[in-house]
Design a protein that fits this description.
about 170 residues, mainly alpha, about 80% helix, about 0% strand, elongated
């Protein structure tokens, strides 16, 4: 397995899983995870020999993702960490998979929202009531940890993405 494959198939998913786990437990996604995603992408660029044109396309896609994410943040739909995570994932996926990712992540986000809101209408079992992160998820005034949906969307489409296949051909 090449370094590029290792980064796309192991490091990228582990960082996404960490972001999702952190978000579900605390409703935050620490900046160090986004920084790690960006650094891992830079290492991938070097390891894969990505062309300058491809690098530019991915960077531009990342900035478009940031603009989309912060628009959703400004409208109050997602948190700032979610906006940054969206941009980082789009940096990795590029324009080739931006629309697919946005649609799939949105569907997962909708399913997550409906599930959490529905569960909030049910009584919290006593065995779970002592866990702070579960109480936060169950609080009707709480938000939705969209980092989970963003990670799930990336996992769902990753095997069909251009970057996944690019890593496999190196």
């Amino acid at each position: 397995m090449s370094v590029a494959e290792l980064i796309v198939w192991v490091v990228f998913p582990l960082l996404l899983a960490s972001a999702a786990g952190w978000d579900i437990a605390s409703f935050t996604i620490p900046n160090h995870l986004q920084v790690a995603l960006i650094i891992a992408f830079c290492v991938f660029i070097v390891a894969s020999g990505m062309t300058p044109a491809a690098i530019g396309g991915h960077l531009l896609a990342g900035f478009v993702g940031l603009a989309i994410g912060f628009t959703l943040f400004a409208l109050g739909y997602i948190g700032g960490g979610d906006a940054k995570l969206f941009a980082c994932v789009v940096l990795w996926l590029g324009f080739a998979n931006l629309l697919d990712y946005a649609v799939v992540a949105s569907v997962f986000g909708g399913m997550l929202t409906v599930t959490i809101i529905g569960m909030r209408h049910l009584p919290l079992p006593a065995s779970l009531a002592g866990r702070a992160w579960i109480q936060r998820l169950h609080d009707t005034r709480g938000g939705i940890p969209y980092g989970v949906a963003l990670a799930a969307g990336a996992f769902a489409i990753l095997p069909q993405t251009e970057i996944f296949h690019f890593a496999a051909t190196i």
